[in-house]
Amino acid sequence: xxxxxxxxxxxxxxxxxxxxxxxxxxxxxxxxxxxxxxxxxxxxxxxxxxxxxxxxxxxxxxxxxxxxxxxxxxxxxxxxxxxxxxxxxxxxxxxxxxxxxxxxxxxxxxxxxxxxxxxxxxxxxxxxxxxxxxxxxxxxxxxxxxxxxxxxxxxxxxxxxxxx
Length: 164
Fold this sequence. Notes:
It is a single chain. With 164 residues, this protein is mainly α. Helix content is 91%, strand content 0%. The mean pLDDT is 87. The longest helix has 136 residues, at 8-143.
């Protein structure tokens, strides 16, 4: 017998052996194999669904993060704007306060100068008056040493003074 032209008995025995093998496989192996394949298919499908859900969640998180970043930038800009306004207000208040203090100091200095000037003038007048009296006293003492001069001076004063 040759392999190219098999005999009739060989075909029958091969068919019978194949049938028995098929029956044994169908009875014992086919259900577990199919169950394992179905389980594997389900796990792959679940993994794909989980991957899609994770990808969607990541996209949502990414959008949420972008939204949070935009809100944070807006809040940062608002805070910076308020800080600049507050800085300007504080600087203006400090500037106005320093101007007012400077004006007050200048006014106080002017008043002090005026007061000191008036006090100095009064002191000078008092000193001049004191010197004048002292000089006049010395001159009168010198001129009025004797009695005849005193009488002549008194008569002269009476003539100059008019009685009303």
